[in-house]
Amino acid sequence: MEAQKRPLAANVVNIRCGGVVGQMDGLLKNSLPKNDPKLLKRGRDSPPNLLQKKKKNFGVAGGAAIKNDENAYDPTRTIETKIKNIKISQKNDLPLKPLMINNNNKKQQNELKIVMQLDKNHHTAATTKPNVEKQQQPSKTVADDDKKHRIDPKDYYEPPKNLPADIIDYDRTQLENINSEPIYAFEIFEYLREKEQTTRCVKYMHQQKEISSRMRTILIDWLVEVQQTFELNHETLYHAIKIMDHFLMLSQIKRTRLQLLGIVSMFIAAKCDERIYPIIEDFLYITDNSYVRDDIIKMEIEILQVLQFNLNYPLSYSFLRRFARVSSQTLETLTLSRFILETSLMDYTFIDELDSKMAAASLLLALRMKHLQWNKTLDFYTGYREQDLIELAKRLNQLIKPVNNRQQESIRNKYSDSVFFGVANIRPLDDI
């Protein structure tokens, strides 16, 4: 750094002094003919001639005119503009030697000093008055500027339409929560409620020749283990099953490729929902190398072509989290409803139910099992009344009852762990 700074500083000194330039002009005059056009032009434009030409506008008598003329000639304006932002550390730079000035140019140097001194006086006089006025004004602190430009979310928030007066506006309470998006949350879930009508699954097993609902149950039970092994988000599991079901709605598949469909659906969902998703080799390993890399890539292309890259599906898990938050449910109650909802993924008979209704029914059953009640807040935010969910809650209650010799127990074993409060061990209701 030191070696780079020193030439820069030396160039600046040479430019400001101007003596070297005058000396070079003298050498050129002796070496070129008198009538040489280059010499004539260079003589007219040389710094000494320019100073003599502009000198008439400067002087003690002309000081008042300079003060009033903002466009007056300033021999240092261009140089100062170029170097005003250059910062040179005195600590790192070596001291510069003063330039040797020829005696023939001392007169020119003195004239330049007079002009620079007059310009300095002019600059001081021009800036003195604004500084006085600035001191008279009250000083503004940084806090005042921040307060002036600070955007208050409360100014932009609009409560949901038709919100009853006796229901707490949950999103308003989250305006200061940086991990939430309360201004758009209600509209987002209204949009998802509309979208789930157009992306609703329909039963498809009647058009599949080589697979059955039993095979689907076994595959999803295995995908739950894959999700735990790779520590993927729950949204990834729900999204993968959604992709798989929509593919089977539109295309037939052979039995030998069903596992490949499941693992590639998980791969695509992980790309959408995970910050860091498993690579292809990880999925090959989890299948015990039953497939090769090209099989996964070709299957991924086939899925995306069949679905026409429409991968944005409303998920029942997202609805469930929203419903539990707005009603201020405990984490244990939420986990119990997650166990109920996740168990329903393996049952083919629930495939054509709306995701929002499945989430609401799972939460209702969890509330009943925890001896809690459905309330008006859930009526408003879910869009369902309690009587609308009773029949679906009864089916879910029957589904989670323990069955002897059931082989697909991955979800029950998962939620029997203390990490999930052991909610799978809570006894289902005898009647709901």
UniProtKB/TrEMBL annotation:
Gene3D superfamilies on file: Cyclin-like
Cross-referenced Pfam families: Cyclin_C, Cyclin_N
Biased composition, class Polar residues, residue ranges: 126-140
Segments for region (Disordered): 30-55, 126-158
Residue ranges with Basic and acidic residues bias: 35-45, 142-158
InterPro entries: Cyclin, Cyclin-like_dom, Cyclin-like_sf, Cyclin_C-dom, Cyclin_N, Cyclins_cyclin-box
Protein name in UniProt: Protein kinase binding
Native source species: Dermatophagoides pteronyssinus (European house dust mite)
Lineage: Eukaryota, Metazoa, Ecdysozoa, Arthropoda, Chelicerata
